[in-house]
């Protein structure tokens, strides 16, 4: 099994970012070939689902998440082997706001619509939820009072009972959009577009800001590369929704930021990136070739980025959720 196990402190030109486990026979470092012809599952905020090939960025229809009233925040969708889970804030017949969990079954193209009930301990009457991540039967999310608030609460949703649990974790002074949430090593990592980057310890119920060289780490499109590395797009000032690919080492909070001239812009700042085998993916626009959006594919073993433009008429407001077997 391929495994990233060490991040090099620096490399020149196009040497590899990561070293890999040695083969059992001691035959030296194993560098896998880049993934080829991977089929990716992509969604937009209206619930339209597409299959796209990573070698040509061409789209074909896959299905649709039914029951969306207006639109789903890009970060409020998460995929498993069988289902896609999405949360939308909707208004009921009494003009009250409620949270709907939409569960799209990949096998039969059917969407189940579940109205979620909030425990009284949360003390939220006008709820909205973004930034979903999943671990086993638990979906974690960021809960707001209203459409946005400087105070947020971390909750979990059981995918079998649909019960919402208050984790007891509340954060204040988050005066910027939460762009994503990621689960790894019994902790959550939260990215924002202007309020920093945070480690959330679910067991200790503590939150810690992780900075980059003494400054807030503002980012979007997080993806778990392995248990100790997270890839993301770090904000680049003066570019609308622009960022460059960086890798955070969770062991010492160091940042690899060697491709500062490769800037990519996303239509929506909300949502996670996607990592498969050896490649980190984002759908957006390259500043170098801005005519059409396309697929960024960054090979973390070779350190080589590629960008495939796509002249389709689809909105660039798309998020990569999964692969398609």
Please explain how this structure is put together.
Residues 1-21 form the signal peptide. Keywords: Signal. Strand 26 and strand 27 (304-309) form a beta hairpin. The protein is globular and about 50 Å long. The protein has no helices and 28 strands. The protein has a single domain (38-323), classed as Kelch-type beta propeller (Neuraminidase), CATH 2.120.10.80. Strands 19, 20, 21, 22, 23, 24, 25, 26 and 27 form a nine-stranded antiparallel beta sheet that branches. The chain has 325 residues and is mainly beta.
Quick description:
The chain is mainly β and 325 residues long.
Largest sheet: 9 strands, antiparallel
- What is the architecture at the second tier of CATH? 6 Propeller
Mean pLDDT: 86
Number of domains: 1
What is the H level of CATH, i.e. the homologous superfamily? Kelch-type beta propeller
CATH topology, what is it called? Neuraminidase
Q: Please provide the ordered H/E string of secondary-structure elements.
A: EEEEEEEEEEEEEEEEEEEEEEEEEEEE
Q: What count of helical segments does DSSP give? A: 0
Strand content: over 45%
Q: Give the number of DSSP strands.
A: 28
